[in-house]
Amino acid sequence: MAYENYSQVSWTDGTPITGDRLQQMSTNTQQVKEATDDAPQGIKKLKSVTTASSAFSNFGTYNEIIALKDDTGSGGTDNRVSIAASRFYRVTLNFTGFVIDTKGAEDSIYTVALYDGLFSTISASTQIFTADFTPPIFALINVAGSGASATIADIALRNNAYDSKFGASTLSVVLSTTAAGLTNRSFFAAVKREQGASSVNAPTFTVPASSTVKLLQLYVEDIGGIA
Where in the chain is the domain with CATH 2.60.120.760? Predict the structure, then answer.
């Protein structure tokens, strides 16, 4: 534990230099080093996406939305993550939600997942976090005619111009490195939809992103040493 053997060494004119005092000074220096080494090192890698995802129409299959990987082969940067041994780290997705632009398949389950690995080899990658969401029905209580006395009998479908938007959140998981640490590790986030009772006329869905206030982000932080 940091500073457990720390002891202030005081000096006045004429204080003798002894082996014990010098040893305590060395111990103090080591204690400060250990405490500093255990401090969080902050964000190791960060990726931001500013364009909405493709429109997905499939069921039961993950679709990649953002990744920390080596993109140097396509003109990008190397966003692989390296973290020393015996450290806590946090993988965080600033998830901008799901957008569905029409009715259908409202009993489906929409899932966001974080993986350690590459989407191209998803079967060999390690799933480290998942979150499930269910969309609202594409309907409203129509008060245009009945006003305040409207009841469930006045339910009506929404116009397709009014999208369903749900699931926006900050999702994260805290993990720890082993004695081997992490070297050039890739991470990615993916989404999928699981079919409910029916998939007839199922709408497509997207994950929104923009360059202003709707950044889809994935990042990994070093949050401190393991005591």
Answer: 40-225
As a whole number, the mean pLDDT across the chain is 93
Give the tens place of pLDDT for each residue, 188-211: 999 999 999 888 789 999 999 999
**Hey, how many other C-beta atoms are within 10 angstroms of the C-beta on 198?**
12
DSSP string, 32-48: HHHHHHHS--EEEEEEE
* Cα-based angle 49, 53, 56 (whole degrees, multiple of 5): 155
- pLDDT of 57 reads 95
How many angstroms from the chain centroid is the CA of residue 224?
A: 18
CA distance 45 to 80: 7
Task: Map 94-111 to HEC letters.
Answer: EECCEEECCCCCCCCEEE
The amino acid that residue 89 corresponds to is Y
Mean pLDDT of the 147-164 span:
88
Query: Which is more confident, 143 or 184?
Result: 184
CA–CA gap between residue 202 and residue 164 (Å, rounded)? 13
What are 126's two structure tokens?
């390690």
Q: In what order do the strands lie in the sheet with 42-49?
A: 42-49, 216-225, 87-95, 169-176
Number of H helices and E strands in the chain, helices first, is 2, 15
CATH of 40-225, one of 3.40.50.20, 3.40.50.300, 2.60.120.760, 2.40.30.10: 2.60.120.760
Separation of alpha carbons 175 and 128, rounded Å:
9
